[in-house]
Amino acid sequence: MQGSMIAVAKRAAGSGAELVPVPIPAPGPCEVLVKVRATAICGTDVHIFRWDKWAAGRIKPPLIFGHEFSGEVVETGPGVTKLNVGDYVSAESHIPCGSCYVCKNGQKHICADLKILGVDTQGCFAEYAVIPEACAWRNEPSLPLHIAAIQEPLGNAVYTVMEANVPGKRTLIFGDGPAGLFATGVARAAGAGPIWLAGTFNFALAIGKTMGADRTFNVRSPGVDVVRSVLDDTHGTGADVVIEMSGAPKAIAEGFSALRKGGTFVAFGIPSDRITLDLNNDVIFKGATIIGINGRLMFRTWLQMANLLNSGRLDPSPVVTHQIGLREFQKGFDLMTAPERTCGKVVMIP
Question: What average pLDDT does this structure show over 308-324?
């Protein structure tokens, strides 16, 4: 396909982004060109937009960023065998090499040479995007575009919660960003209970209630003590499962304190620096299981997520609080970076 398109790009090092005209990309071998119908802003995109220390060390402009989207296949490259023009797809943002030891061990999501769409390759904040056929997930036709676009981050939550084996277990979730809110909904759909959610914004915690939290805590409010409250609710035993989605050192410390002996701690949130952990009392003497989560399983998580969505047991729509045009990208990033956050997931429509 020839012609030009608009895209949100980081043209040079520094904060911000620009809406620029660029050529429509051509799919290479085993790749497909997708007409982007909806794309969502992720925390990683905020890092790139702000141009923080991580972005400065990882991103190589010029780059069209963005990695969460849904759309329609409009062209296929040589060697594509399973997708057809007209297919309705979403993207698995992890692009594995497929040949390293880790990939061959069935762990493509943590490939030793992993590339990320919109980070290491040109992304989807555009009217069209190219992705490997191997990273395209075919959606049910009835799935709304904005829900199909947020399956990548929703899949993080599905993977996190399912690894914790939460059915019938008392579950404490830290983090009221989209990841924590999605995790709350998945935990409820999977049969966890009771569910506690700790966060920092009343707007987001209200969404958490809608997603299935039995009790919420705003950790910035005077007198709030998450650990004491959970221990009181469990007669001093503690939570069976702690799901850490924020990366905040205080949340990590409180999570281990609230975890019962023999409980499971699942770590997804990324701390900004190294943390201190009392290995003796928090892990060894407590007999705790710690599970680290990166991305989604390719493609077991997608199958589980599709089943939850198609069955109606999981409805992530309350987390999607804004839908705006791609040309309004600055508004989206302003919402995502506001000191007092009043948004969940922001979806942009090209």
Answer: 97
